[in-house]
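Suppose you are handed a protein chain with no further information: no name, no annotation, nothing but its sequence. What can you learn? This example shows the usual starting point.
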Amino acid sequence: MRFLRKALEKYSYGELMIRNRAVLGLAAVILIIAGLYAQEQIPTLKPVLTEKAMKGFIKNPKELIDGIEAFEDDEDSQEGQWVERFKTVIREDAGRVSDFLEKNPAPKKMQAFFRKYGFDGKTGILQTVVLVIAVVNSEREDVSDVPFKIHPDDIKLVEKYKAELLQLLRSAFHQMERTGE
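A reasonable first move is to predict its three-dimensional structure. Written in structure tokens, the prediction is:
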């Protein structure tokens, strides 16, 4: 109340209204900018792709995809449960995916599987996700449904192998259409 009395003594009613409008207007602009900024804060992942992983995927795409699906389908196994937790983190807060992988390493069986095909044992599933999303996004205009931004280094690596990767993914898509998967 003292603040209001002092303000009333110091300024006329008209001056107070102008100052209040200016302060309220500034506050509104700041809130709008903060809201827009928060909406655009999609996390950018650290670079995860490597030449070795790219070549491993190009050489063995079916084995990799089938292996990941087998882990995922075995819901009662340690690997299946881990894949479900990973998918939950991606869906709910993709910005936490690196922390999740650090605190919850993939089961040893999965790590060995990813290393067999040139991927990092601990981040192999994320490498696969980033690789596929980067290739698909290279062909799409609207990527607003992707829960994270792919690091520019990973995008450059995908661009290097884009022709081969697109051919593989198209072949896989056509195969799925034919078999009804």
